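hey so u asked for the seq, here:
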Amino acid sequence: MAVEVGVHGIIVSNHGGRQLDGAVGSLEVLPEIVEAVGDKITVLFDSGIRTGVDIIKALCLGAKGVLIGRPFVYGLAIGGKAGARDVLQGILADLDQSMGLAGIRAIADCNRSMIRRVQYGGDLRSSN
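ran it, structure tokens below
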């Protein structure tokens, strides 16, 4: 629908959906959304980005970029402009380190071949 009405981009977010028991996680549906819109519109991801690995996962699953909300605001509240800058620098440093550890040389190299889903017993859904 977004493509049909001429939207240039969308943000995938559960926007507080963590309060809903059994809600589908945004990262889980990101590949489906990216596939549905193809390269016709830009898909950004905004849902629980806290670390460099979170960024890598979103990019590998097709997001063109990520939004960082709460950590930035926390840094701003604690240390003002410098606190917000420090939070973003920390996340970027973690991204750089995580990319190096994963053998990813550039953001453009993030693709689905770089990640895989591992099912854990706690991942099983309840019948609720």
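The first strand starts at residue 9 and ends at 12. The helical segments are 26-37, 52-60, 70-102.
lmk if thats what u needed
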